[in-house]
Design goal:
- A hairpin with an 8-residue loop joins β7 and β8.
- The protein is an alpha/beta fold.
- The protein is built from 13 helices and 14 strands.
- α3 runs parallel beside α5 and α8 crosses α9.
- It has a single domain, classed as Alpha-Beta Barrel (TIM Barrel).
């Protein structure tokens, strides 16, 4: 494995860590040369890099495998919880593609089985997910995921990090599994597979709120000593009905309003008017001494170039401020 082992996670981080990455999400705008010139790394999403034939390798890249990727207008689901995950990975030629890019590590959502998803109406985040069969029981899920993580490490010859996901109550999602977002279950999977974690702060915020937990308690219960990367946006949430209007231009139906629920909003740290919300800095500072393995903080936003540059600059200032306070 190329990445630094978890056995070294308690060593003091160097002055250069953590590095700052940008995630392109669904827009190529953050892959602009000026933006990348400010960031240390770029996190490539599966549905972007998999279609490119001439990706250059190097340690300036991370790879995040999404639950699905578009293929000729349809969606091909691939997920750690699929029993045929190793076969799918080989069929798609992912080991060769990953080795060609030579990333620092590969990360995936700790998510339910994509093979059981029948349809995602409209978009994958806010509309109801329908499943074709009963979702896996907790222990079945645990065994399948752990086995697939080990196979992924072997096939990619890379560290494989797992990302926490948001929890949406079943009456709205028609099948999302609560235990996947439970901190104890996340810790159990990471320990069993000796894996690192991608901590998505906004996913954690939404999960805590929808599970009736205090955000601070939820974070403290996670295996923070295994966090090697953080996905950073302003930790907040919005109502699903509001998100349909703001993000997708859809008019919420009566049922949408009646069955409202909190979802992640991915709001920037710096607004268009230049205003900075200090919540992210306060939150990171409160966790900093427990994040002994942290190497990368990724700005996971889809913004115009100038707005992305403001947010990258702010993240670097946040890191600098926290380090200076800890030296005193």
């Amino acid at each position: 494995m190329k990445g630094e082992g978890l056995s070294d996670k308690n060593e003091e981080r160097g002055e250069q860590a953590p590095l700052v990455a940008v995630s392109e999400l669904s827009g190529a705008n953050v892959l602009d040369e000026e933006v990348l010139g400010q960031a240390d790394l770029v996190e490539l999403k599966f549905n972007w890099w998999q279609s490119k034939d001439n990706q250059e390798g190097g340690d300036n890249k991370l790879i995040h495998l999404l639950v699905y990727y578009p293929d000729a207008g349809s969606k091909v689901f691939v997920n750690l919880a699929d029993r045929d995950f190793p076969e799918k990975i080989q069929e798609l030629g992912l080991p060769e593609k990953v080795r060609k890019i030579n990333p620092r590590w590969v990360s995936m959502h700790l998510m339910y089985s994509g093979s059981q998803v029948e349809a995602v109406a409209g978009n994958d985040q806010y509309d109801s997910v329908k499943t074709t069969e009963p979702l896996p029981a907790k222990e079945d899920f645990f065994k399948t995921v752990c086995a697939n993580i080990q196979r992924a490490k072997e096939m990619f010859d890379e560290d494989v990090l797992l990302e926490n996901v948001e929890f949406v109550p079943q009456k709205y999602s028609h099948g999302l599994l609560r235990f996947i977002a439970d901190p104890d279950f996340i810790k159990r999977v990471l320990e069993e597979t000796d894996s690192g974690m991608v901590l998505d702060l906004e996913h954690a915020y939404v999960a805590a709120r929808n599970m009736g937990m205090k955000y601070s308690d939820y974070l403290k219960a996670l295996p923070l000593e295994r966090v090697k990367e953080i996905h950073l946006s302003r930790p907040t949430a919005m109502r699903r009905s509001q998100a349909l209007v703001e993000d997708w231009g859809k008019h919420p139906s009566k049922r949408d309003i009646e069955q409202d629920v909190l979802v992640d909003a991915h709001k920037p740290l710096v607004s268009e008017k230049g205003k900075f919300t200090k919540r992210a800095e306060v939150l990171l500072a409160s966790l900093w001494n427990k994040l002994s393995a942290l190497e990368v903080i990724t700005v996971e936003l889809n913004l115009p170039k100038d707005e992305m540059q403001k947010n990258i600059k702010m993240v670097k200032e946040i890191i600098k401020n926290i380090k200076e306070k800890n030296r005193k």
